[in-house]
Amino acid sequence: MSPVDSTAAPAVPAVHLRGLYKAYGQHEVLRGIDLDVQPGEVVCIIGKSGSGKSTLLRCINGLERFQRGALQVEGQALRVDDAAALRELRQRVGMIFQSFNLFPHLSAGRNVMLAPGLVKKLAGAELESRARALLSRVGLAEKFDHFPSQLSGGQQQRVAIARALAMEPRILLCDEITSALDPELVGEVLQVVEGLAREGMTLMMVTHEMGFARKVSSRVIFMHQGKVHEMGPPEQLFGAPQTPELQQFLSALH
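Request: output the structure for the sequence above.
Response:
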């Protein structure tokens, strides 16, 4: 390492949260979340339904407004009232949902081409070659002209991943992306995500797939009643849970 590197400033967190608070009326969903996610980190978020996991991701992407606290993405504060800033944020922060949300009237290739065509104003030939490359990357090279109704759930979700990658995001948020799939299709989607993790993509994943979380995470976060209840490397969190709440959550899975 060169001397210059040794004096380099610490990396700006990919995602920086302080005191994040969100409520729907009287119902407190996020009750003061403090979290830094570093570039290239794979963070899996686990916890019971209703613990605030999905809401946390939706706040980071500007889909939900939080009432108090600070949220920065790559050093820039989230500005939900600025439409241009939100559009720019969503180019850097991709999101994949539980339901695939593909446009049924567009082929797989056209689904992948749509957003970069609108936002990045790329020409047709370049758009198409990039879409083909992305579908190939998720193992669907031959499905370019297939419509969502002609694809399995696992294939549709892989198209959704390719579509998110088409915007060249630096951070990818995955919200329960396998929970709508038949068990035999889960593996093909997780394999694609595992490949992204190996390539160094910053990933934040809400997941019920504990084996996957154990295998690919840099860190696992256990959320309970709107707070980060426990956090640490997967071997620590799964192997030696510190709190009764996490012990109970893990034992209920077996």
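Strands lie at 15-24, 27-37, 42-46, 68-73, 76-77, 93-96, 171-175, 202-206, 219-224, 227-232.
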